[in-house]
Design goal:
Length: about 130
């Protein structure tokens, strides 16, 4: 049976994949263990990128959200590891460019300006009458 931390991580990965799909991305998961969790193809540029998914946490002592971006050995993810981080905060999904630092902090007032939020929702197609 998976522990709670594993379950939380799996949930964040599913939420991130769902948000990418809803935004029109093509999404893939590696078959073998890699330093990234997901690969996705941008619907506008057609370019593939790799994403490491992390659960964002609120730190009331600093009035800020944080995404811890380190591997199990404590080292920060490099650009060779992944192009972007995805911070999942409840059901909100934020894409963060990998700057090769171990922690990404943002205040609640600046979260939408500093981190790119993926909008989760159903895309509606319209059909014209013939």
């Amino acid at each position: 049976m998976a522990n709670q931390s594993t379950n939380i991580g799996a949930h964040s990965e599913l939420v991130a994949a769902t948000a990418l799909l809803a935004a029109g991305y093509e999404v893939a998961r590696p078959l073998a263990a890699e330093s990234y969790d997901l690969a996705a193809r941008d619907p506008v540029t057609g370019e593939w990128a790799t994403y490491q998914v992390k659960t964002a946490r609120y730190r009331p002592d600093r009035n800020a959200y944080v995404v811890y971006a380190t591997r199990t050995n404590g080292e920060a993810y490099t650009r060779d590891d992944c192009d972007y981080l995805i911070g999942v905060l409840d059901d909100a999904v934020y894409v963060i460019e990998n700057r090769e630092i171990g922690e990404y902090w943002v205040s609640p007032d600046n979260i939408d300006a500093k981190w790119r939020k993926l909008t989760v929702g159903i895309r509606k197609e319209t059909k014209e009458a013939v």
